[in-house]
Amino acid sequence: MIPFHSFIDHLRYERRSSAHTVAAYEGDLRQFANYMAEKMDDPELPEVGVAELRTWVLTLLEDRELSPRSVNRKLSALRDFFRFEMKAGRLQHNPMDGLRGPKFRGKLPEYVELGDMERLFRPEMFEDSFEGWRDQTILELFYATGMRLSELLNIRRQDIDFYENSVKVLGKRNKERIIPFGSRMRSLLTKHLENYAEKFAPENDNFYIFVAANGRQLYPKAVYRIVRKYLDMVTTIDKRSPHVIRHTFATHMLNNGADLNAIKVILGHSSLAATQVYTHNSMEQLKSIYKQAHPRA
Questions:
Q1: For 107-129, what is each residue's pLDDT tens digit?
Q2: Which residues of 47-67 are buried (b: 16+ CB within 10 A; e: fewer)?
Q3: Residue 168 — φ and ψ, nearest 5°?
Q4: Cα–Cα distance list, 50 to 41, 56, 97, 186, 228 (Å)
Q5: Out of 74, 246, 252, 264, which one is annotated catalytic?
């Protein structure tokens, strides 16, 4: 069996990858190791070459009928694994160097139109209660900052700086970043925290700001339900999730002239390539405006 446990330990303890990422990598590597064990009797790592990798890719595409996107994700796990083995001196040549993953046409990120987002935040959409103000604050914070669901869930009172109008979040690979917000978001956060103090009387600032009615930290499914509940009222797009609001934030920022590098930093992307996908949404909007405005379009 091809040994990959050292690499998994590296992900878990040195790179401090999330549990979800570690599980995905481990599943992909185990699948490949099992495939190689079937094809070769107790294979050694140096015996893996481009030919074996290509055969595996074809098996995934044809026999398992996986999408090109899923196959490329598995190849990404292998690529990281082989690089790790080369750095450790257990491999002299990276078989991934001669392999290209299957091409796929990526889908543009879905987002909510500006008019629909404006309707979402009308005062009558939310009840005048702890839960109503909390829900509005959650939705506004997603849209004001573009943060991820996991980042929002783990915000504590001490992470909010009302002097600088910013919030500190812990992103992927435990990377901290500070995201600015505007005066409207400041007012909502202030109101929400006043409601929180009145309802739960916290003794210090080390508390999660988004909780259920019983004071316990909100869990992901609860936030999904909150987001879907309100987006159902204003839009008919297929996906109505926290991540769609993240897409909406980035798309609206870009459409209004924000610098792509600035959006990258705010979103916490490690490379500009991950942020550039939103330029396609911007181009689609320009094409639509052109067709409507130009007499000979």
A1: 678 999 999 999 999 989 999 99
A2: ebeeebbeebbeebeeeeebe
A3: -95, 130
A4: 18, 10, 8, 55, 45
A5: 246
Please say whether the beta carbons of 173 and 17 come within 8 A: yes
Active site annotation includes 269: yes
Query: Known catalytic residue: 264?
Result: no
Residue 216 among the catalytic residues:
no
Q: Say whether 240 is catalytic.
A: no
Name 169's bridge partners.
Answer: 177
Read off the CATH number of the domain in which 54 is found: 1.10.150.130
Give the structural domain span for 43. 5-98
Final residue belonging to a domain, choices 66, 98, 130 = 98
Same domain, 202 and 287: yes
Question: What pLDDT score was predicted for residue 294?
Answer: 66
Whether residue 105 lies inside any domain: the answer is no
* pTM value surpassing 0.90: no
**Catalytic member of 172, 186, 191, 239:** 172
My answer on whether 92 and 232 are in the same domain is no
Confirm if 152 and 223 have CB atoms less than 8 A apart: yes
Q: Is the pLDDT of residue 154 over 70?
A: yes
| Amino acid identity at 227 | V
Specify whether 294 is catalytic: no
Please tell me whether residues 94 and 238 are part of one structural domain: no
Number of domains the chain is built from: 2
Q: Which of 74, 148, 192, 247 is catalytic?
A: 148
* Residue 103 pLDDT grade (very low, low, confident, very high; cuts 50, 70, 90): confident
Residue 148 catalytic? yes
CA-nearest of 25, 31, 119 to 80 is: 25
Report the pLDDT value the prediction gives residue 267, as an integer from 0 to 100: 96
